[in-house]
Amino acid sequence: MLFYDSPNPAPNPRRVRIFAAEKGIELPSKEVSIPKREQKAEDFVAKNPRGQTPILELEDGTVIAESVAIMRYLEAEHPEPPLFGTTSREIAEIEMWCRRVEMILMPPVGAVWGHTHPFTAALPGRNTEWGEANRPRVAEAMRFFDESLEGRDHLAGEAFSAADILLLTTLDFAKFVGLDMPDECATLAAWHERVSARPSASA
User: Fold this and answer.
1) Which among 14, 115, 12, 19 is positioned nearest to 66, based on CA atoms?
2) pTM passes above 0.85
3) pLDDT the model gives residue 51
4) Which of the chain's termini has less CB crowding within 10 Å, N or C?
5) What is the pLDDT of residue 38?
6) What is the mean pLDDT of each successive set of 10 residues along the chain, which is 203 residues long?
């Protein structure tokens, strides 16, 4: 098994690293440099036609792409501690919040990143106006999660889960892009401080 990783600030490989750290899984890994565009090299694209990290290559040559799919595989192979829930309700709630992070917060963060950030200046098809228009959408999404966390320690259910990992990595990537939490998001900020203190957050 080989995990094709990319270092911070790339948020999606970090999701898997945190997930594996929470489970105590040691993932043999190979670094793929995004600034050097190694993810677009012919040999890598042969493994993942999307030309993105992370991917997990299994012993039989099977390649699993997409961070949450890799996390699901690791959960099935290493059920303890459960990070996608065990009861039908837990599984559904964690799935719901994972999807909300990916549908509500990540798209506007990605738009600001891809269309306005200096690091992505060479990408074709940039539309600065569209990128700037997404800044208020990021703030609105952060307020949504701030309100959602009122009265709870974790995003989904009673325990730390994959949903917390997705939200943490997306917020940290947003900060790297220059998108800070609105000042009024005290609940979200307190949650972020708590989950950032977990040893796995440094993975």
Assistant:
1) 12
2) yes
3) 96
4) N
5) 96
6) 96 98 98 94 97 98 98 98 98 98 98 95 92 98 98 96 98 98 98 98 96
